[in-house]
Design a protein that fits this description.
Elements lengths: L1 H8 L11 H13 L4 H7 L4 H15 L8 H28 L3 H4 L2 H5 L4
Helix pairs in contact: 2-4
């Protein structure tokens, strides 16, 4: 009996789906048209309200109707800059390791005689 109760209380997570920009634009247009609520559009197309709300918000940001977030172009630029920053940090780390002197040669007479400074 407890196994049945456990399985009844747990919902399976919905598999992650991806949608084309054209589909998202159509959904946003349906929401903005005003004939149906965001909830109705979500239910009609078997989408989560959160996803549809995010698409509408992003469309408003891109159109300039909102200013409380990043536009799609700004998001793309930020992602590109973060990738570049990560790569440059890795390059700096590699150069630091390549130029690091072994500590035992740094101040020993043998190291000084061999030209290590």
């Amino acid at each position: 009996m407890s196994i049945i109760m456990e399985s009844m209380g747990k919902k399976r997570p919905r598999p992650r789906r991806s949608f084309t920009p054209e589909f998202k634009a159509e959904i946003v247009e349906l929401c903005q048209r005003g004939d149906r609520t965001l909830r109705q559009v979500s239910q009609d197309f078997d989408l989560t309200e959160t996803a549809v709300r995010d698409w509408v918000k992003q469309a408003d940001l891109d159109a300039g109707a909102r200013t409380d977030g990043l536009t799609s172009n700004e998001r793309d630029e930020l992602a590109q800059l973060r990738r570049e920053n990560r790569r440059l940090r890795e390059d700096v780390d590699i150069l630091k390791r390549a130029t690091a002197r072994p500590h035992h040669l740094a101040r020993s007479p043998v190291g000084l005689a061999a030209g290590v400074r």
